[in-house]
Specification:
about 400 residues, alpha+beta, 2 domains
């Protein structure tokens, strides 16, 4: 066990807290590109738009590009990020040849990528398989019976609402959650080896103590990369840096700023998700539907009758029709309200739901976009920079 830094979660809570505070001190730097991505809105870097909508990359204007990696699978990121990283690698190789950096350094001599972009839809699909199993287990354990689609909704939705407090349910909420990695942005490259999040001792010994550390930070800054102070092997493209902007423009002359990158090279995660939401409910019904449900009906003070009811079988379209389009959208919007720490009153929520439902009939894209804009105001969030500042002022009084 390290005397100064955390190595794993087995250490006591008080010991971990003290060591984490020490690590915060040593992980500070005068270099502005060493960034704490766990703080406030920075944890959503590359995952929200300027309107705070959860977003995912598209390849309409900028393509993904592969980099040779340490393992059998190549690492891919946005092409301008890959180009900047290749130049950074070359810089290190030249410095190593000239003897200007320590060539014995395990990770900061030859920068070898080990991971990059992860497909958010694939990650979410795996995440929801676990959700499906968990809800199925609850239905079996509690013997929750239902004979049709509406009964199913009444049985299942309360459990989903309860679980939302600790685990997001919808795709847009997942994108913003801690369950979703930064790497879905296409802007992140990790080098060297996979580091356990709590192994601060390894981070300190292999990165912060390295003879090449200062050069590493300086070089990353020159080529447009931020470095995650909590995971020092993680490089994140600084899309506001001159080098990255030049690389974007070289890849596509239409993308000449961070704003244009976000506007054109990312899609709002919520816009196409609603159909998947409805399909998931149908799949959940199908996976947990019994052939019959047995109930007991009292027909006399001392006599009851057993009733066997067949559980309805639906096609997907019949399932949706049975619940009703208005009710389905209301369920979805209420779940989104539950997932976000919004301060809307019950009246305001009902009014928003009415307006979105009315607009959705004529223009679903605009309806979902307006709803997400209303919902994703960062000043309503515990942990947002403005919230933290407000709380600091309150506590200082």
């Amino acid at each position: 066990m390290s005397k100064y830094f955390v190595e794993n979660e087995a250490e006591g809570v008080k010991e971990i807290f003290k060591k984490k505070q020490l690590f915060k001190l040593v992980s500070q730097s005068t270099q502005k590109n060493l960034v704490d991505f766990s703080f406030a809105e920075k944890q959503l870097y590359g995952r929200i738009s300027h309107h705070f909508h959860p977003i995912i990359p598209n390849e309409e204007f900028l393509k993904f590009k592969e980099l040779a990696a340490a393992g059998p699978h190549r690492v891919k990121v946005f092409n301008f990020v890959a180009d900047a990283f290749s130049e950074l690698q070359t810089k290190f190789k030249l410095k190593a040849i000239s003897g200007e950096i320590d060539t014995q350094d395990e990770f900061l001599t030859d920068l070898i990528p080990i991971s990059g972009y992860q497909d958010p839809k694939l990650l979410y699909s795996k995440y929801m398989l676990a959700y499906d199993r968990a809800i199925g287990n609850i239905i079996k354990k509690k013997q929750l019976g239902f004979t049709n689609a509406n009964e199913f909704i009444n049985v299942v939705i309360p459990y989903i609402e309860n679980s939302i407090k600790t685990r997001p349910f919808t795709f847009p909420a997942y994108i913003k959650s801690k369950d979703c990695p930064m790497s879905i942005s296409g802007l992140v490259i990790e080098i060297g080896k996979k580091i356990e999040a709590n192994d601060d001792n390894f981070k300190y010994e292999k990165f912060y103590k390295s003879e090449n550390w200062d050069f590493f930070l300086n070089a990353c800054n020159t080529y447009g990369f931020l470095v995650d102070c909590n995971m020092p092997n993680r490089l994140v493209a600084n899309v506001n840096s001159l080098n990255m902007i030049n690389k974007m423009a070289a890849s596509n002359p239409m993308i000449t700023s961070a704003s244009l990158l976000i506007q054109n090279c990312y899609d709002t995660a919520a816009l196409e998700y609603y159909e998947d939401f409805k399909k998931f409910l149908y799949t959940l019904y199908q996976n947990n539907r019994k052939r019959t449900v047995v109930t007991s009906t009292q027909i006399h003070p001392d006599k009851s009758r057993t009733v066997i009811t067949k559980v309805k079988v639906y096609t997907y379209s019949d399932f949706l029709q049975e619940i009703g389009s208005h009710q389905l959208l209301k369920i979805y919007l209420n779940l989104r309200f539950s997932e976000e720490e919004s301060t809307f009153t019950k009246y305001e929520k009902n009014k928003i739901i009415q307006d979105v439902t009315r607009l959705e009939k004529s223009d679903p894209v605009i309806a979902y976009s307006i709803f997400e804009t209303l919902l994703n105001k960062t000043f309503d969030y515990s942990g947002s920079l403005s919230y933290i500042r407000m709380r600091e002022k309150q506590l200082g009084q």
